Amino acid sequence: MPTSYHKLNIIRKLAPFRIDGRAIPYPEFAPKLYNLCMALGFRKGLIMPSRAFCSDENQGWPIIMLTKHFGTFPFNHGRVGGIVSTDRHGPHANHGEDSVIVQASHVGYDPRNGSYGKCTRPKREGTCISDSCGKITHVITPYLEEYLFARNRIFLHCLDDGTCLLTVKNSFIDFDSHPVKNGMVVHLENMVKRAENGKISPLSAISTSQTYEVSEEFRKRLEAIGYTWKTGEGESIGKHLTEDLFYFREELHETDESILLERNLIEFMPSIVTSRNPSLRAAKINIQLEFARTVESIRRGDDYTGKNLLYIAGLNIDISEYEGYPATTYFVPWAAHIQLKDGTPEKYQKPLEQERLFAFLMEQDSYNPDQVELKEEISRMMSSPRFDIRSPH
């Protein structure tokens, strides 16, 4: 059945997700994360890190930094887009005495213009700039295209007597006799005047559209931001088609594991497609919903019972090579779940929200005395004896 969220009486609100002043470079974040584990009583040499990242190559440096500071390659705990594979809690828990999970969706950032969503692919010929997280972009693109199409085919205009009108294509209207089965639906009840009997009836119609008189509330709303109504055909609604004026009734587009990402985002798709940075907005939403889902799976399960566990979620911001400096990634912490094997103190029994988590991380030293020198480890590996490996008899 198509997915629709337009008639909810109980609305889910997302918490503020702050980026300004909260982004930590991975060469600083990874040692701070390790030292935070030490401060919580985790045991040196017994910590098994895990990451739930996208599979893009620009997530490699964060993985290398986690390897360097925790002394082992992190367990793979995720799917594309930053989805957590909650069915991997058990295997992860069995790989170490203490456990750390770092979960992040990612988005590119261009420091030259402050835009989000793109990155440079250095292994492509020439200067190849593409979507930083192709999976998030792939999921939201059909909805973004529908929204942009609708912006240009819904019109605002007025009659000579000052009556303000809205003309909408039939395909966006959820008629009682012919409801929209798959696509974008306009919230007419938020825009047009109702008859005395409560029904929404057009003033006129043409072959593909209906024309309605707008409500007094909607007219004042537009005029309050300086909108000037135009006579004749008027003009397309454009940017004034805001997130509260439509919703999507869709069969989910994805058929592979990324359907989990689309399920997270569909409810908030109007907010995503109307954002100045849709991919950033989508990443922030996915992080919040995945954190809540994963904490619930940890609390309901017993995989980490009797163990030290730190689960931290946030946003990976990828910056391509810039003015001679190599590509790098920053981490913006969002929230954390902590449980300790000898009993979790009351102050950690609820998740650490963003401000408290950020302050806790920044209290930690940026130097990790237990970090591994990867070059030395590789040299030791290369100088190890060659074993005579044979098939069993």
Q: Find the structural class using helix and strand composition.
A: alpha+beta
Number of strands: 18
Unreliable residue runs: none
Mean residue pLDDT: 92
Which CATH top level class of the largest domain fits? Alpha Beta
How far the N terminus sits from the C terminus, by CA atoms, comes to 57 Å
Could you characterize the architecture of this molecule?
By secondary structure, this protein is an alpha+beta fold. Strand 4 (78-79) and strand 5 form a beta hairpin. It has two domains: 24-117 and 277-381, Rossmann fold (3-Layer(aba) Sandwich); 143-249, no CATH class. Strands 1, 2, 3, 6, 7, 17 and 18 form a seven-stranded mixed beta sheet that branches. The protein has ten helices and 18 strands. The radius of gyration is 26 Å and the shape is elongated. 28% of the residues lie in helices and 22% in strands. The protein has helices spanning 26-39, 60-70, 89-93, 134-151, 216-224, 259-266, 269-273, 278-300, 354-362, 374-382, and strands at residues 24-25, 47-52, 75-76, 78-79, 83-84, 98-110, 115-116, 118-120, 129-131, 154-158, 164-169, 183-186, 204-205, 209-213, 235-236, 246-249, 308-319, 328-339.
